[in-house]
Amino acid sequence: MSRDEIESVELRAAVLCTPQARASKEAKLAELAQLKAKPTVRKKVPVPMADGGTSQEDLGTFWNNMRPNFGPEPSRATTKLSDDEKKALLQIAWVREEAAGMTEARAAET
User: Fold this and answer.
1) What pLDDT score does 79 carry?
2) If residue 98 lies in a helix (H) or strand (E), which one and from where to where?
3) What mean pLDDT is predicted for residues 42-46?
4) Residues of the chain above pLDDT 90, percent
5) H-type alpha helices, 1-110
6) How far is the C-alpha of 27 from the C-alpha of 84, rounded, in Å?
7) pTM of this prediction?
8) By the 8 A CB rule, do 41 and 57 touch?
9) Which of 52, 61, 67, 90 has the fewest CB atoms in 10 Å of its CB?
10) Within 13 A of 63's CA, how many CA atoms are on the CB side?
């Protein structure tokens, strides 16, 4: 390998290994509050960051990770929510529908 090829490979490795800036939990929650319907898993959407930039985030997976907070077993949630965060999200129609569906499903099991 020539010196230029080695430098090119090192540069690509540095770019690929550099951690990308991510939106905060609060920014993702704010973006969820703007949605009219439940987000789609694996569909990335731009979320504003504190530094003024944007981050491409999968809000569907973010929602799935916090969804158990609204069901009968909140300890199963991998993204924990405070009581205030839960109250704020429950102001959103599609979140209320999801929470009600979880409660109905649990009642049907018993």
Assistant:
1) 94
2) helix 93-109
3) 94
4) 63
5) 3-17, 25-34, 59-66, 83-89, 93-109
6) 15
7) 0.76
8) no
9) 52
10) 22
